[in-house]
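Private note to self, pasted from the team thread so I don't lose it. Backbone tokens:
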């Protein structure tokens, strides 16, 4: 049995999955109250303001150094939930492996960022879902049970790979510029493709455009020719020439094409990750360019 705590999930619902239990932390109400005073109106918690001090060794008085105030690079938040895993594969290093996969998976499906208590966050943290879908009632337990079971069957390298993909996807919500979001979302997509390739022992070296088509076709995800073309050219210009959407990274010149495609790419990645986990929900086959809320339904 492995026990741990993490945060921050803005829900008190208990999750009973095949291999364990996730439930509200005993101090969730107090911890929720303590962080809500830092919650911005946009739904994010931002890094606190910190500063440097000199210490008077004779009195131990702290004296603030002038002009040293700045947002913290790293900060912690209190836990919201506890997790119990009945039979982890890596019982001696569960935070790195089993527990890490499960809480990153939970963050992925809930559209937030989660971290173990006493571990650090960087950047902003969403307190409300960044996903545009709603889970079918009582489906969360099945999704976690199925996905963790699939992860347990992977080799160690693929296990680590999958955790990193989920972490990077969740971290994407911390960025604000559209070109930053695109870079992290494309990094996630490339990781998805390479993991698919490695799991299936495929040794081809397709173009980046063909990688997109491959993932869409293999997993029966809808194809949008114009948007695929846009993503491909945005990626090439940004990664090879530092050109974003026809202009500067802070000022595109192409009528919000980049802003739209970074969001489309994130939604595409969500479907590809679910498909890579072999969770046969019809949601995977829904258009990834839809911005309205969709239903994440039961497997077919």
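Design output:
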């Amino acid at each position: 049995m492995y026990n741990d705590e993490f945060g921050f999930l803005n829900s008190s619902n208990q999750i009973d999955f095949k291999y364990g239990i996730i439930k509200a932390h005993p101090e969730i109400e107090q911890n929720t109250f303590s962080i809500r005073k830092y919650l911005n109106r946009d739904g994010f918690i931002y890094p606190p303001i910190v500063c440097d001090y000199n210490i008077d060794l004779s009195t131990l008085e702290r004296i603030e150094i002038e002009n040293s105030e700045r947002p913290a690079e790293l900060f912690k938040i209190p836990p919201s939930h506890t997790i119990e895993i009945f039979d982890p594969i890596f019982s001696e290093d569960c935070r790195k492996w089993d527990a890490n996969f499960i809480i990153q998976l939970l963050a992925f499906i809930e559209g937030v960022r989660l971290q173990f208590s006493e571990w650090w966050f960087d950047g902003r943290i969403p307190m409300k879902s960044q996903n545009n879908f709603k889970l079918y009632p009582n489906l969360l337990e099945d999704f976690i049970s199925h996905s963790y079971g699939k992860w347990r069957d992977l080799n160690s390298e693929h296990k680590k790979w999958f955790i990193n993909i989920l972490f990077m996807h969740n971290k994407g919500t911390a960025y604000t510029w559209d070109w930053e979001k695109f870079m992290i979302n494309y990094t996630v997509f490339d990781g998805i493709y390479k993991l698919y390739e490695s799991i299936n022992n495929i040794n081809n070296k397709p173009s980046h455009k063909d990688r997109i088509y491959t993932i869409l076709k293999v997993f029966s995800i809808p194809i949008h020719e114009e948007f695929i073309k846009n993503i491909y050219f945005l990626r090439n210009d940004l990664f090879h020439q530092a050109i974003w959407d026809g202009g500067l990274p802070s000022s595109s010149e192409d009528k919000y094409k980049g802003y739209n495609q970074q969001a489309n790419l994130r939604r595409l990645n969500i479907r590809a990750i679910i498909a890579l986990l072999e969770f046969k929900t019809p949601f995977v086959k829904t258009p990834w360019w839809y911005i309205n809320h969709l239903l994440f339904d039961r497997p077919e």
